[in-house]
Design goal:
The complex is a heterotrimer of chains A (349), B (561) and C (153). With 349 residues, chain A is mostly helical. Chain A is built from 13 helices and four strands. Chain B is built from 17 helices and 15 strands. Chain B starts with 23 loop residues before the first helix and ends with a helix. Classes of the chains: A mainly alpha (349), B alpha+beta (561), C alpha+beta (153). Chains B and C meet through helix 7, helix 8 and helix 9 of B and helix 1 and helix 3 of C.
Amino acid sequence: MTLPEAIAGVLPIGGVAGEIVAAVIGAAIIGTIMLTNTAVAGPWAKRKITAAFTDRIAVNRVGPFGLLIIVADAVRLLSKELIVPEGVDRPAWDLAPMVLASSALLGFAVIPMGSIFGVNMQLADPETGLAFVFAIASVASLGLVMAGYASNNKYSFLGGLRAVAQNLAYEIPLVLTGLSVVIFAGTLQTSEIVAAQSETLVSLGGLAIPSWFAFVNPFAFVLFVLANLAEVGRNPFDIPEAPTEIVAGYQTEYSSVYFVLIYLGEFVHIFLGGAIIATIFLGGPAGPVLPGFIWFLIKIWAVFLFTQWARSAVPRVRIDQLIEIGWKGMLVLAFANLVLTAVIVGVIA
Amino acid sequence: MSLEEPRPPTESDVGVTAEGDLDYDELADLLGDHVVDREQHVNAEGFVIRPDEVEAVLSTLRDEAGFDHCSCVTAQEYQDRYESIYHLKKYDDPTQELSVVVPTPRDNPVSQSGAGVFDTAEWHEREAYDLVGVEYEDHPDLRRILLPETWQGHPLSLDYNQDQPQIVPLREHANPMEKRTKVPDDPDTMFVNIGPHHPATHGVLHVKTTLDGEQIADIDPDIGYLHRCEEQMCQQGTYRHQIMPYPDRWDYISAGLLNEWAYARAAEDLADIDVPEYAQVIRTMSAEFSRIAAHLLAVATFALDIYGDFTAIFMYGIRDREVIQNILEDLTGQRLMFNYFRLGGVAWDLPEPREEFFEQIRDFLDEWPERLEEYHNLLTSNELFQLRVVDTGVLPPEEAKSYGATGPVARGSGIDYDLRRDDPYGYYDELEWDVITDDGCDNFSRAVVRLKEMEQSARIIEQCVDLLEDWPEDEREIQSNVPRTLRPDPDKEIYRAVEGAKGELGIYIRSDGTDKPARFKIRSPCFCNLQTLPVMAEGEYVPDMIAALGSLDIVLGEVDR
Amino acid sequence: MLGVLKSMATTMKHALDGNTFTVEYPEEEPEVSPRFRGVHKFSQERCIWCRQCEKVCPNDTIQIVTDDQRNGEQYNLHIGQCIYCRLCEEVCPVDAIILTQNFEFVADTKDEFAYNMEELKNVPWYKDIDPLESREPDRGAWIGEGEGEVDYQ
């Protein structure tokens, strides 16, 4: 039973209207949870994590542990003037931040986030769930291109071009690696993929290691995590932004609310990447003692932490090197992985 | 120290005696009728030549006498003439110096350009034109370099009227915007202004870039945004006191002591001032601290350019600098703008209690290898870092010499040139240390040279501390006797250089009998090194251009002065 | 890939050891070296109006006004324009102008940084450190005299 169905059950309205209202409420709940996570991650956690890597203290003045900086930052950013540069391509320029933010958020619709207080936190569970996630996540590239082209700025333009080239080069290995999981699980439905990972792989001295695909096929896991770094645009693949080269890439000309939307979109995207990794490689919400939903949050935060860790120590590669790694390296490896998985599955079955 | 044996003179070295000294008579014979007159400068002899024979003289001296380093071009105006001086040296032995003096008449200050012989002369002559007003014939691109194009007059010329409006609006300017942007005819290229406001230009540098896709088709650094008339300010200060605070502000990222030494060395040699040995040891030690601090920032910002702005390396660099700055603060009383050297010595002895101060330095030295190891872990052994910087921004040694590159940039191109060893000053020739070179010629080797040089600097500091600890108490003389007002003899000219953090930092001073210099010229290493940027960057990708700029380690305060 | 992992291990080590090198200023005050050159303090009682400081100042920060009997009337020093080279203290024959270790000063406009004789006199000694003790041990400062409070806010 998904979250909207659970809500529909307790709503006094019946029929289609009830389902729609329940779906909206459910979506609002999931959206709020994810945006809250982003709000904690963007202004606060990111600063604290970076500070830890660089031996600094970071925000500590506003509220306990500096947590209220989230409020202060939100007020600061939203109260700034929205500067619309001359010559921007209006509808596209305005739409890009919204596309960026909403596409990332939309992906969470089919992610099984486990249950908390007996409620299953999944909005929808279509049979083509995984395909939907990948499709939605790549809509973000469209937003990047729109932002880059519409800004009427050469740096933005370069950033937009880089974003397209990068996403093309990494989307395919990413999907192909995801496909190997599909071969294992035999389904695209996200809840089924999670269920397929619940069995015990081996038992080591009473400690049961679950058959998470990260353990079954570590090669695919590493490949996917790397491709995901490129997908969410973090070091060593943050070249569409590359602040020291092209100022801020596609987001150079954005300010105020639009900047917040882009910024939000980026972080939600990282979390979505984390959610996909958790779902198809780390057994989704599975975990001992704590409720599934908490485990799910822990896993996506772990992926977020990993991206920040990579930022502290991994250099950004050059655009031509990135394309080369993508097309000549990752793609080949992804195909190899696919064949390998097919063989393994064939042997086991 | 490990002084290399002076290179035995070979057949091709015209004008070198068996002892390795210059034989100016032989050089004059080589040039024959070109030499109109001969002048005595404190550092070298000056050959006066006719303004239309510059190229011939310079190329003869370069090709036949081995003067392959055009260190600096100084232009100045006298009551009766303009004068350009080409300070020539040899990369093999910088003590062999020669000045080529080119006088031009006041009413027609046109002189032949030396840019055809030494590439580095291009920017130097542009500066001479900009500030003094000498015009150079056959110069490839003679336009203002430090001042805005609409500036009126030449501020270092004698008849410059400071009260006139100095900049006129563009519409009143003769050829507004002419040559300003070379808009390419090729529709496949794109013109981008990188800077003056850009995260990776290390200050207010403006790089006019023409891109072909992501590749650099043409690049032209535009400098002068931070021009503060440092030369003129020094000309208005007294030798004894007022000039010394200013060198701190050329290369302002804590390389101050090295800069102060450049002025101190030039002025001390000009006025025949001796420096007590004890003061020399203190100078050597503190200057090496400055060098480590400067190199640390260079490496840290280089990492910032390559890794992106969340890298930990930058903060680690800043953290280690903090330790050095604390030591320097205890010694000099300031963290960046030291003003510690005085003519004939230093301002203060080491702080009391000395043991505590030595312990502080020892603690730093003990931790230093571990710190350096960390940088090597983070940078040089990181494969992705190697992927980014190896074989990018290549600067071949011949180009480096022609552009007058010095310091880590030259040593990263395999040129074994370090004034601390080749033209010893201070206490360096008594100490044990090595000059680091690397044949890679790329961004990577320049970073490696800096990292290794920090190791050598730590060695020097350690030996200095040993010396200072055992120095007998009654011989701790920090300052020799220098008159309160210093008036060097009139018409003495000197060009002296020290090894600054970025390379050869030279000072030219001409005295006129007063207590202020008549001409004060700064040969900034960053200025010359920056000229090599087009060589490194053209044909490369934008990120490699940024990396090359980072590996040059320019400080705009020193480039623009 | 080993080198990349080594880099990541290095930063992780820093993240886990919990050491920080930044401090919580202003709760934790930085250690100021006794030689540090901060805001000036001036003693009208000591000054003999010889004008040496005014003459040596590299960027004309000090302005002295005397009457025709060479009695001092004004002593102005722009602490925002000053480059803190300490040459004035160095040339002063009577230690009338001394650079304290005070490094914190704020003002609403830069004009407020143009201190006159009274304001310069009221600059407090920093933590009772004698500025001359570590700089020129053979010259004594007049610590304790001319104690005053400047309200920097």
